[in-house]
Specification:
Elements lengths: L4 E2 L3 H17 L7 E6 L2 E6 L9 E7 L2 E7 L3 E2 L2 E2 L9 E3 L2 E4 L1 E8 L2 E4 L10 E8 L1 E3 L7 E15 L12 E17 L7 E11 L3 H27 L1
Parallel strand pairs: 2-15
Antiparallel strand pairs: 1-13, 3-4, 3-16, 4-5, 5-10, 6-9, 7-8, 8-13, 9-12, 10-11, 12-14, 14-15, 15-16
Helix pairs in contact: 1-2
């Protein structure tokens, strides 16, 4: 019988949300671009698996007046086991992050732009991070599937968005979403006994009311930090 044990459940999601708020206290003051927060209401983040495409992940997500359809580039932290194959007893880290999507597009309030990880005029810059717990790899046996709650944060810097804000430095979109990630594993056909990821999909869903409260608390803290630092920057 196949089995796997995650290192948490709802507590992981709560910790991630609170971690976002703490991270805001440690981040440097934001650049002088207009910033807006957007809740992600649906979408999927699909991971690359063995024999798949050349990109690490593909994100499709929507929120109020916002949408993104983008693929990652070479700068990412992949989900997986530290040190290589997932041998029995090792932990599969279910989190992943991307710094600079290489292709795709974003849209906000009627303005659409392509995505590029290079400083191309008129192109938006997009990064995201999906935080989840770890999965304990069982002894080699039948293929299995396990789920983990996750929180995704997305940052998109528009090059020019006249219907968003009038800013010479562009518009910064900070979007957050939550959901359940599903991972499937099968024994590797070659090499020492180990597990291989056959599918990894993070499904963004509209959060339950308690999650909205936690997300709102984190965003309020982040917003307060942003305003305080902006005031300090203006008085410096």
């Amino acid at each position: 019988m196949a089995y796997a044990t995650s290192t948490g459940g709802e507590s992981i999601l709560r910790s991630i949300i609170l971690g976002m708020a703490l991270a805001a206290l440690l981040l440097p003051p934001p650049a002088s671009a207009d910033t807006v927060g957007v809740p992600l209401t649906e979408g999927t983040l699909t991971l690359q698996v063995a024999g798949g495409s050349s990109v690490d992940s593909h994100l499709i997500a929507t929120g109020p007046d916002f949408s993104i359809n983008a693929v990652s580039g070479p700068f990412f932290v992949a989900a997986g086991c530290a040190g290589g194959p997932c041998s029995p007893g090792s932990f599969f880290s279910a989190g992943t992050s991307v710094f600079g999507a290489i292709a795709g597009g974003v849209s906000y309030r009627g303005v659409s732009e392509g995505v590029n990880d290079a400083p191309v005029p008129g192109a938006a810059f997009a990064s995201w991070s999906a935080g989840a717990g770890s999965i304990l790899m069982p002894p080699i046996g039948d293929s299995f599937t396990v789920t983990e709650p996750f929180l995704i944060t997305l940052e998109v810097r528009f090059a020019n968005c006249p219907t968003c804000f009038n800013s010479n430095n562009g518009t910064l979109i900070n979007a957050t979403g939550a959901g359940v990630a599903t991972f499937s594993f099968a024994p590797l056909a070659f090499g020492p006994p180990a597990w291989g990821l056959t599918s990894g999909v993070y499904e963004i869903v509209t959060p339950e009311p308690t999650t909205w409260v936690l997300s709102g608390t984190a965003l309020i803290i982040m917003g307060a930090v942003y305003l305080r630092r902006r005031r300090k920057g203006n008085t410096a």
